[in-house]
Design goal:
seven-stranded mixed sheet, 402 residues, disordered N terminus, Aspartate Aminotransferase, domain 2, homodimer, Kynureninase (chains A, B), Aspartate Aminotransferase, domain 1
């Protein structure tokens, strides 16, 4: 390790309610609690719902939450104001984007994805294809084969930018350009990108982007998802999940669906007001933060971690790309006894996670991590490996959520 | 009015955080805040998410919330334990049920509903039909024409039991029997039934039931929806919204979807943990309550209200069925100046709501309403009408959510 870095002055640890002494390297799975959240949610419960009841919808802007919160996420993914809305789960948003994409390419039958995509995206594509029953096929190739697999029969390319296991990162601009040159619609899942790496949906001109908000955006367990559609395209889409809050006049209670203008048409049902209040408060930690600074700090921390682990833990083998520009904001290592080793590490208050068959994952989130955390994580991991602390029956049994 | 009733001993007003002096007759739109909710949600935020972070999924049973909360709702709708799951919004659950119903009747093309159904159910049916593009048609008839409209070409009958405007209630057993005799699949939307009237999904043998939880179940704004599927049927259904949490082994991260056994396969994405925690706490108010008692008290309160209003407000005309067995737990009146009259009433702390073109709605929820509330509501409404308090420009402008 190379002595103290500054993490470029963006450490905002004081804005998070992190347990004393914990090194939390799992913000790529569930971000920690921002201090602003409990009070904001308590206010919505008591001063809004409790005190104003049904009037809360008008008095406290609950109905506009999806757009308001979408506008907080938009700058983090390079989207203009008014082009992102919130709700449901990421899986539902994948369905919406893919359904729209296939309707834009009615004469094509291939959905192209890769084996590094998160399984739920693949499952949702499978489910939609079976429901449509029009001969679509889900074609899954290795991540590095995507560019050459984009042929003229591909209706939609559905990719998660950053691989949830290895952190390998696709080049959004390059792949979007290849997809569109072949006439395919591009859908990006930004679950491991939003708040993790600079994203420019406008610059790459992708048709759709979706993502979750409980990882790097710290919205809490079950925080709602987001969806972006390219503004020049959105008004041409007939939503398949045509719920009343995507209607042009939901409170006119018309019997026939008329889609709202703009991204509002990708809303479905009643917004999850408490979860959105938590997320809105959580997003306040991004005030004045530039994603370029976050990225620089993330790379500095990750490089420091890799160097430290490779020096101290020869049994671990880097699973992430070595070149930082090819990684998202996580670092993964292969280790045969990875599950037990991670349990031993967690028992020492250094929190990462494990993905089968042998991957130890560590997320780097410069808003609340600094060099001292990285050094402590390296030291603990070195101790776990050197002293074979993983070789303990207490760490062998797998819990349900790993 | 006939002197004090007892409301049969089920008033549990002390379990709700109702503003002093307010008569809340809008629990059919958004239930009030149960006192147990803020502490439960604060605990999940701080002692679970904040303190245990990613470990919360295992330590605090977040992943099992949908089944646990479903098991609290099941007895309120006559469903067995393990047959109800939670998540998403009611609109999404309508899509899931209807998509499954159509796949069970691949040779039929009619979706039958009525003009009293909540618009979002109709919109979701429209969206699904357009997405499938296989010649399905949504046939909408008047509510009283449903029995005769159930013909042998009907794939699915999709009805909301209780009309959101008038409170008119379908006979679930009778219509389900007619539907099934014609070979159609029956889907009940219980948005205005669960917690309002006794429901017996097992007894009527309907294939599917769905509902929301922010009305009579008091789960808070944006509380998640529920879905029930008949246990003998569920394992034959291939879910269209095949998200990872409906997978048989979500944490095996397989690339191919394999549905979980039972109702779990109708889960989609990550559960909304904060909203589910609020709902779980809210459902504690039902401990030891029988729906038969609630129904008897609701009828007593509603009859008292109708008698009082009809005696004092001759300009109002009952929009609900007069026979209590044909109504849900709300009473509606037509009044030409209904919107302004409702605003005047609300300004006097008696809260109902309005539905175009001229309907004043009042919900009766015996867990937190008693005869004194009804008498006060009648007296205020009488004053608003007698003194033409509605004839005030301040009450003319319509707010967005009415």
């Amino acid at each position: 390790m190379d002595g103290p870095l500054t993490t470029l002055g963006i450490t905002r640890k004081h804005l998070f309610d992190l347990p004393e002494g914990l090194v939390y390297l799992d913000g790529n799975s569930l971000g920690p609690l921002p201090r602003a959240v409990p009070e904001a949610v308590a206010r919505v419960m008591q001063a809004e719902w409790g005190a104003d009841l049904i009037k809360g919808w008008n008095l406290h802007g609950w109905m506009d939450q999806p757009r308001r919160v979408g506008d907080l996420i938009a700058p983090l993914i390079g989207a203009p104001s008014g082009s992102v809305t919130m709700g449901d789960t990421l899986s539902i948003k994948v369905h919406q984007a893919l359904s729209a994409a296939l309707s834009l390419r009615p004469d094509r039958r291939i959905v192209l994805s890769d084996s590094g995509n998160f399984p739920s995206d693949l499952y949702m594509a499978e489910g939609l294809i079976a429901e449509l029953d029009r001969g679509h096929q889900l074609r899954i190739v290795a991540p590095e084969e995507i560019p050459e697999a984009i042929s003229e029969d591909v209706a939609a390319v559905l990719l998660t930018q950053v691989d949830y296991r290895t952190g390998r990162m696709h080049d959004m601009a390059e792949i979007t350009q290849i997809a569109q040159a072949a006439g395919a619609v591009m859908i990006w899942d930004l679950a491991h990108s939003a708040g993790a790496v600079p994203v420019d949906v406008t610059g790459c001109a992708a048709e759709f982007a979706v993502g979750c908000t409980y990882k790097y955006l710290n919205g809490g367990p079950g925080a709602p998802a987001f969806i972006y559609a390219r503004p020049d395209l959105i008004d041409t889409i007939a939503p398949a999940l045509s719920g009343w809050l995507g209607h042009a006049a939901p409170f006119a209670f018309e019997t026939t669906y008329r889609p709202a203008g703009g991204i509002e048409r990708l809303r479905v049902g009643t917004p999850p007001v408490l979860q959105l209040a938590a997320l809105e408060a959580a997003l306040s930690v991004w005030d004045g933060v530039s994603m370029a600074e976050v990225r620089a700090a993330s790379i500095a921390l990750s490089e420091r971690f890799i160097a430290g682990v490779e020096a101290a833990c020869p049994d671990l083998r880097l699973a992430s790309p070595r070149a930082p520009e090819q990684r998202g904001s996580q670092v993964s290592f292969h280790f045969e006894h990875g599950y037990a080793a991670m349990q031993a590490l967690i028992a020492r208050d250094v929190i990462g996670d494990f993905r089968a068959p042998d991957i130890m994952r560590f997320g780097f989130t410069p808003l609340y991590l600094d060099e001292a955390d990285v050094d402590r994580a390296v030291a603990c991991l070195a101790e776990v490996l050197a002293d074979r602390l993983w070789d303990n029956p207490a760490y062998a049994a797998r819990s349900r959520v790993t």
